[in-house]
Write a structure and sequence with these properties.
Chain lengths: 438, 380
């Protein structure tokens, strides 16, 4: 039921776009654009009261609809932008384009997505300080450009896997803000029904959300092999951080990917600190894009969403046709490693402020949009307000929704037991269940 | 016989209902209570120091461990301490000030590579230096599992005594902490108990932590110390400031009793002490509480003597039920003390699921479930 509703409303929007001439009716176009651009272009999820006992959550599948479909019609304004910083290449003679185009629609979308992620992380921070969110909470604040840039060129058949700093990715891969925040507070409408929490969020083609760093890279290699086997042209983006880049299993994955020519892009999100250890103190070679040895690599300015987009586009095409490669996104996180880490015992406040001032991804993109005339100040403020309302509503639900019943403690351990019950203290009497319908 | 069997089943069903009702009550209480209620499931029972090794100083568990490592690094010039983030003091502050005192050559950070840390530590120990390796959370010990089980445990055996990594000690924080979820709450002692060649210990408080760590460092076998992370701050005792060691392989009887033996380790010991108080008050049952302390080798004599005395044994641990260390205890006790047992050995443990996120209060073997088990075993 969800899938039909989602597809129908997006298709309706596309059809309307095609029928009405955008150049003649700017107001109507802007109103219609809302059909596309709420909740990262996906319809709002149902309110919790509409969810029935099978615990359908905020995950909405929009399979087969590429974010860019239907928007080629808008030819209002396209800017040609030269990227501020170039790329550094390892074992490549030519790299991604440094002259990129940006349409008005894309500008709105990227700005909106980055702003939404920033707001969701701020909301998560507030909820954590109020102890509504417990456990470990790793925020993506500052690194939004990486996720938004990569997502912009991912096709429906591509997949992504990352470690635990995934609230932003969960949002971009189709969860609503409610799906993310309710999962943080451990409620039913969260994406994993509250069973995973901050570190374990999943969505279609988004394999999480994994606790043990480095382990997800080998999983990504497996996902890439499956895509190759199924011949669907899909590429897997396997993300890891500068800390995890020193794990042995990452190098094992490089070797396997190169041997079997897997369609995988290894992405190192280098935010310069592995928890409290700066990259130079943890790695003998901090040029992470070269650590694939025979695998080619590209260094990208991770605070520039257009640079990330250009590099990812190049990388996806490369991975499909010429083999695996590495991307290193040089980025920065403003917060600490997690919310129990103030983030100032291993770096100075001035450093954080400096980065925020000079290279904040959202501010840079905002200025770019204004400079190239793609958006006006009012339009940007409108988007800000929209995003704020969306996140506020999500926070309301995250606070008030109910939790899974205790019986779901022993659900989802197996696909199905030979005996349908799990062992408890008194015998086999814990009824094994599944919290989502198969 | 038939009547007896029927009686047992009814009691079992009744007690299952009791536990579920207790759980339901707890759930309802938690729903309306402020989050602080769910913070810890135990009350800490301090131990009084019996040794006369130096003045007593009030300290918590991470300070006691810090002092133990200070002593070890001081006494043994070849001792090294390394792990992720130990340089600035460690995520639990166990290695505060040690780098300043002993220098970066002896106290240093490693990159994020548990398998590398373990392998490196084994090499250091083989060459004769003392290695104290820290794995940041016991949940992350699994990449190092191969090194510990296949290399460290078997080195002396396969080289016929020519090489050994006896001066290796691995420290890892383990156990539930209230909000750890799947990957910051595990208790992996059972996996390592299955490996001859290792020694595994779990302290219950600062005095024990300091003594056990010093004993492990001096012990000529590779040792693993699992420190319950929730006790790092919560456990405060008057700890002797001198040098002392606790005996490895020796269990402590914390409370004498005649009716039921309660066996646990780490944080669970404190839950069981509270259960013993409650049992005395509500059920008029006299419980003997044993802290096993050492998982491998474990103190068979103390446990079997106690089991023979009381005839009823309840084992409690946080790790899952199937193949948790309680199963080894139950198997051995019934083998050696069968005719003196009045009831089968009962185990109160975590469920056979991964350690949950929001369901932690229902997963842990808290005082309600343990008390229900005591009631059940007394009425067997």
């Amino acid at each position: 039921m969800f899938k039909i509703t989602a597809k129908a409303s997006v298709s309706a929007g596309i059809i309307l776009h095609n029928l009405i001439d955008p150049t003649k009716n700017a107001l109507l176009t802007r109103l219609m654009r809302r059909v596309h651009f709420t909740a990262a272009e996906l319809p709002r999820p149902l309110a919790p009261s509409a969810l029935h006992d099978r615990y359908e959550n905020g995950v909405i599948t929009v399979a087969g609809v590429h974010p860019n479909v239907g928007l080629e019609q808008e030819q209002e304004q396209t800017a040609r932008v030269r990227l501020q910083r170039g790329f550094k290449l390892h074992r490549l003679s030519e790299g991604p384009d440094t002259m990129v185009s940006l349409t008005q629609a894309e500008a709105v979308r990227y700005y909106r997505q980055m702003k939404a992620i920033r707001q969701i992380e701020a909301a998560a921070n507030r909820l954590y300080k109020e102890r509504m969110v417990r456990g470990f909470c790793h925020l993506y604040t500052g690194q939004e450009a990486c996720a938004v840039g990569m997502r912009a060129v991912m096709r429906p058949e591509d997949s992504i896997i990352s470690a635990y700093r995934v609230h932003g990715w969960a949002y971009l891969m189709g969860l609503s803000a409610q799906g993310v925040l309710a999962e943080l507070t451990g409620r039913r409408s969260g994406c994993s029904c509250g069973k995973g929490g901050s570190m374990h969020m999943y969505a279609p083609n988004f394999y999480g959300g994994n606790g043990i760093v480095g382990a997800q890279v080998s999983l990504g290699a497996g996902v890439a092999l499956a895509s190759k086997y199924r011949q669907n042209g899909g590429v897997c983006l396997a993300l890891y951080g500068d800390g995890a880049a020193n794990q042995g299993q990452v190098f094992e994955s490089f070797n396997m990917a190169a041997l079997w020519q897997l369609p995988i892009v290894f992405v190192c999100e280098n935010n310069n600190y592995g928890m409290g250890t700066s990259a130079e103190r943890a790695a003998c070679n901090t040029r992470y894009y070269t650590r694939g040895d025979v695998l080619p690599g590209i260094w990208v300015d991770g605070m520039d969403v257009l640079a990330v987009r250009s590099a990812t586009e190049y990388a996806i095409e490369f991975a499909q046709n010429r083999g695996p490669l590495l991307l290193e996104l040089c980025t920065y996180r403003y917060g600490g490693h997690s919310l129990s880490d103030p983030g100032t015992s291993y770096r100075s406040r001035e450093e954080v402020k400096e980065v925020r001032r000079k290279s904040d991804a959202i501010n840079r993109f905002r200025e770019l949009c204004l400079d190239y005339g793609l958006q006006s100040q009012e339009q940007l403020e409108e988007i800000d307000a929209e995003v704020q309302t969306e996140v506020q509503n999500a926070v309301k639900v995250a606070r008030s929704d109910e939790e899974l019943a205790p019986q779901y403690l022993w659900a989802d351990v197996y696909a199905q037991n030979i005996e349908p019950r799990l062992r408890s203290v008194y015998g086999y009497d814990l009824m094994h269940a599944r919290s989502k319908p198969t | 016989m038939f009547a007896w069997g029927v009686n047992c089943r009814n009691i079992r069903q009744h007690n299952m209902k009791v536990s579920v009702n207790l759980a339901r009550g707890l759930f309802n209480a938690l729903k309306t209570a402020p989050p602080a209620l769910a913070r810890s499931h135990f009350t800490y029972y301090p131990t009084t120091a019996t040794s006369d090794k130096g003045d007593l100083q009030k300290m918590n568990m991470f300070q006691a461990i810090n002092q133990a490592m200070d002593i070890a690094l001081d006494e043994d010039p070849s001792a090294l301490l390394f792990g992720e983030d130990v340089g600035f003091g460690g995520v639990f502050r166990c290695s505060m000030n040690l780098r300043d005192k002993y220098g970066k050559q002896r106290v240093f950070n490693t990159p994020l590579c548990e398998q590398g840390i373990a392998g490196f530590a084994i090499g250091v120990a083989n060459a004769g230096a003392t290695a104290i390796a820290e794995i940041q959370f016991a949940d992350y010990i699994f990449p190092a599992f191969d090194q510990i089980v296949n290399e460290a445990a078997k080195y002396r055996y396969r080289s016929g005594g020519m090489y050994d990594c006896g001066s290796l000690t691995i420290r890892a924080p383990c156990g539930a902490v209230g909000h750890g979820a799947l990957y910051h709450s595990q208790s992996p002692e059972a996996y390592f108990a299955h490996t001859p060649g290792l020694k595994v210990v779990i302290p219950r408080g600062p005095i024990k932590a300091k003594g056990l760590l010093l004993a492990c460092i001096k012990d000529p076998n590779p040792c693993i110390v699992f420190e319950p992370k929730t006790l790092y701050r919560a456990a405060v005792e008057q700890v002797p400031t001198g040098v002392y060691t606790s005996e490895l392989g020796k269990a402590d009887i914390l409370r004498e009793g005649n009716d039921v033996t309660l066996i646990g380790w780490g944080t669970q010991v404190h839950v069981l002490l509270e259960v013993a108080d409650l049992a005395k008050k509500e059920l008029n049952v006299d419980c003997e509480v044993i802290d096993l302390v050492s998982i491998l080798p474990w103190d068979r004599d103390t446990v079997c003597n106690s089991a023979s005395k009381t005839g009823r044994v309840v084992v409690a641990h946080e790790a899952p039920y199937t193949q948790g260390f309680g199963s080894e205890l139950a198997a051995y006790i019934q083998e050696k003390c069968f005719l003196r047992l009045e009831a089968p050995v009962k185990r109160v443990t975590g469920w056979d699921t991964p350690f949950p996120h929001v369901f932690e209060p229902f997963y842990l073997p808290d005082k309600h479930r343990c008390l229900a088990a005591v009631k059940d075993i007394v009425n067997y």
